[in-house]
Structures are given as structure tokens and as C-alpha cells.
Amino acid sequence: MFILFIHELGYTLRKNRRVQKTILLMLILLFTIGEVLSQSVVHGTVISKLDKLPLPGASIQEKGRENGTATASDGRFSLEVGDPNAILIVSFIGYIQQEVRLKGRDSIQVELKSSCFKDFFDHQLVGIHLMTGIINNPFGAGIDLSLPAFYRDLTLKGGVEIQSNFDKNKVSNAQIELKHILVTCNFDLDAKWHHRRVELKQGFSSDANSWEASFNFSRPFLNIGELRLIAGYGRLNFNKNDMDGSQSSSGPLVGLGTSIGELLRLSVTGKAAIYRDKVEYQGELSRQFNKINTFARFYSFDSFTEFSLGAGVNFGYRLKK
Question: Residue 146 belongs to what H/E stretch?
């Protein structure tokens, strides 16, 4: 009987075109309704995991379909997806791409983590600068050199400078610095040896060496800029005058630094080496713009004080293979 019914139905459909069109229309309508019912609209926000700020222009793509959108200026978006359990691919320049499964949700918040790409732009540079001391030594010059990176961002930087009044006053500085020993998204570590020598006409002289570690935190500090904590050890030999013998002392060195403003690009650093009964003070305010570097420095130890102004230029170089 069932076979006979199927045979009669097929015969009727072949003979009656109106019935054929009606059935076809019903099938299309059912398919369309099913497709519409399976779609849903998702609303969401994309923010930075570090500072919780919105990420405008972030890309949101439904996985497996050519269906996507981008976030508005406030980090918000709306997207019609074909499946309540769809997977959204969220990406933004400088951040790690993330896949988010909706699991029937119609509202989500996505926090993207920074991809932590850093370029320090301090490899293979030669710097030359002129300086003047306002109090004791009006003439001075220096040169700096940084080597190519020999392991990831790790590089070696050195420099020497001298100031004088072309008489018996002379101040010299030398330093060797190992840059970017340890680098993470929010932190990097430098180490430095710094030598300072002062000779004055009155017979005063000092010879100081310090070994310093600089802990650099990239995350903004009190909405000002990056934070640098400096810690180390110093050793000092000095003569008060020609009549007194040489004295030696050693002690800890501490310092603090930060940067001020993206437009100003000012770097501020202050350090103090604390010896047995004396303190050596160093301070610097500098600004780097393209190849030009300007700075103001302060140095004070015992009866000697100097305030210096300087400007210089940096050149890149390449090594032939």
C-alpha cells in the first residue's frame, strides 16, 4: 500500500505543476525561516588587558565565514553570527590574537594582551657631544659608541668625556654599559660601570667608581612615564688638599629616573652615592629627538659643584660582512 501511495503521489506531482510550485515554495520558506532563526546578534567590547582602555578599530571575524566587523572609537561592536555557539577571532595591531567561543552568549567583553614587541633603537650608534660647565669647567666634549646587538637586544655601550678650564681644573667621565640584559613586556634590566675623576687647582681631587643596575619599568608611573630604579655600589678615593693624605670610602648608590610626556620626551635621572661621611650627587635632564640629543647635568661632591649644559648628535653605522 505504501509503495502504491508513493507511486500515486509521484504521478500527481508530475502531472500537476501548480502542486510542484507550491511544494517548492514551502521548502524554500522553511529553509529561510530556519536560517533566520539560527542567526543571532552579538554585542561586545574590546579592551586592553594592561590598562583596561578600549581598542578602537579592532577586528572581529566569525571563524569559518566571511563575516566580520570592527570596533568603534569606544571599543564597542555588534555582529550578526550564523551560530549562537560561533567562534569569534579578535585581533588588533600590537596585541595577541584571541579566539572567543560564544557559547550562546549575546554580550561579551574581550581583553587583548599586548604582543610585547620592543625595539630600543640604541644599537650601532656613534654619538658626539659638546658641553660647557657653568661654574668650573667651561669647555668639554665626549663620544659614545654602541655595538651591534649580539644576542637578541643585548648590546654593549661605552663612552668617555672630559671637561676643563685649560688650567688645572679637569673632570673626566668614562662608562661601560651592558644594555637589555633581561627584557619582558613591562621590564628590562641594564648594568653599568661608571668612573668619575675630579681635579681642581686648589689641590682637591676625587676618584670614584660605581657598579650600577638599572631596573626599567615600562608601565606608566603615576601617569607620568616609565620608571627607573637604580641600585649599586660605589668606591671613592679623594684628597681634600695637597697637604692631606688620600682618603678612601665605599657605600651604596641609589637612584630614581622617569620620562615626562610623549611630546616633551624628557628623561630625568637622579643618583646619590652614600659614603662613610659624605654623599656624591648626580642629576641629569635630557631630551632625545631624532638624531639630536640635549642635556643638563648636575654634579656635587664635598666642596666641588658643577652644572653643565650640552648638545650632541648620533650617527648610525653598519659593519661590512
Answer: strand 139-146
Spatial separation of the C-alpha atoms in residues 71 and 89, rounded to whole Å: 13
Cβ-contact 88, 45 below 8 angstroms: no
Sole residue written with cell 511544494: 23
Q: List the alpha helices (DSSP H) in the chain.
A: 2-15, 17-38
Radius of gyration of the chain measured on its C-alpha atoms: 35
Longest dimension (CA), the chain: 131
pLDDT at 19: 55
Predicted confidence (pLDDT) per residue in 148-200, tens digit: 988 878 999 999 999 999 888 899 999 999 999 988 877 899 999 999 999 98
CA–CA separation, 267 and 270 (whole Å): 10
pLDDT of residue 5: 45
Predicted TM-score (pTM) of this structure: 0.68
As given in the structure block, the three cell numbers for residue 28 are: 524554500
Could you count the other beta carbons within 10 Å of the beta carbon of residue 36? 8
Name which of 159, 192, 156 is nearest 174 in CA terms.
159
The DSSP element (H or E) to which 157 belongs, if any, is strand 155-164
